[in-house]
Amino acid sequence: MRGFTRRLVAVAAAATAVVATAPTPAQAHNSNSSYVKVGYFTQWGIYGRDFQLAKVQKSGAAARLTHLNYAFGPVTADGVCASADPWADWQTPFSDANSVDGAGDVAGQPIAGNLNQLAELKKKNPRLRVLISLGGWTGSAYFSDAALTDASRKKLVASCVSLWLKGDLPGLPAGVAAGIFDGVDLDWEWPGSDGNAGNVVRPEDKRNFTLLAAEFRAQLDRLGKANRRHYDLTAFLPAAPAKIAAGFETGKIFKYLDFGTLQGYDFHGTWEPRTNQQSALRVPGGAPDNPDFSAENAVNAWLAGGAPKRKLVLGLPYYGQGWTGVTGGGSGLFQPAAGPAPGVFGAGTEDWKTLKNLPAQGYTVHRDPRAGHAWLFDGNTFWTYDDPAALLQKTLYIRMRGLGGAMMWSLDGDDENATLTRTVSLGLF
């Protein structure tokens, strides 16, 4: 096992070194790959994180993705799609330095904001497909109401098609943003079970999710027939067996979905009083919880329910979960902790681009190659995370199991060289 660990780390180091000599965006090989590589871009990342779509382009990440999911568009209490932040979406101007094409926005142009940058990104990367992600953790409160009846489903989908696909933005000429989005990603968190506090939840959500997916598929296909193109429909899907059982007809929904992305992270976190893994491939030996969560358990649960393996896309984290005040010694794993570790943007979580520097600050990197996870520990503070070696192992798992590809949450956690995205691309060539 130690020999395998050394080989895995050596291969990951070699893969990371390839970043310096990787193909230019125009030459990037994975645009022809049979695997999907989905990266989430967060609408709000342009603020405190100072992460613009220009960085997705300049880092080389865009050339190595097949899909970019723009997160998020909420479902309102009126049962329609809306913008969570029109300023970010189509109003804020970008400077030369922060524009994908290097030319800043000017007064009087049809639209600005992230949507205009997405259009520029697609011009640079013609094979990249851009999807609007609906819902998310804080935007799913009213999905259940909107999916309740045939009429409410038709209303919701029609509003989404109008706003995001036909590009009919409020207060602007009709169709001003047409052609920017190539489909819809359903991030209903979660049908039939609790998500964010205050979400409407019904037992009927399980059936209604299928019916909502069917309605999206029907309206997207009608629009596609008129435009002579295909619009993608995807969904973000849970790892927990209880949430799968409560909210999804696993053998039916993939009739309507191009693929589904599985939550391969947040298995454990600082809402718990002891350290643990957040994204292991398999349940580690000595894990205190039985049953426990893992990527493989999630994949197996969906396959057992009838999901086609080539439509399952494994989610990968570009961040870590951290605890501080850890006692018990050893490697720090499965030990009691005082609370969440400090983070740049919030307690208990940290971007990989920050975590990668911790070994130089006294942290030791630990690995469990059988379980497929890594962590950092300095005797007091513990971080569970995925580094290039862990991601490479997961891409090998994706290939071995015949899955459809990888999804990454989220692109702003990567470094300026897009090291993690390049590693995933190299693994899923």
From TrEMBL:
SUPFAM superfamilies: (Trans)glycosidases, Chitinase insertion domain. Belongs to the glycosyl hydrolase 18 family. CDD domains: GH18_chitinase (cd06548). It catalyses: Random endo-hydrolysis of N-acetyl-beta-D-glucosaminide (1->4)-beta-linkages in chitin and chitodextrins. This is chitinase. GO terms for biological process: carbohydrate metabolic process; chitin catabolic process. It comes from the Bacteria. Residues 1-28 form the signal peptide. Residues 35-429 form the GH18 domain. Its EC number is 3.2.1.14. Keywords: Carbohydrate metabolism, Chitin degradation, Glycosidase, Hydrolase, Polysaccharide degradation, Signal. It comes from Actinoplanes regularis. One of its GO terms (molecular function) is endochitinase activity.
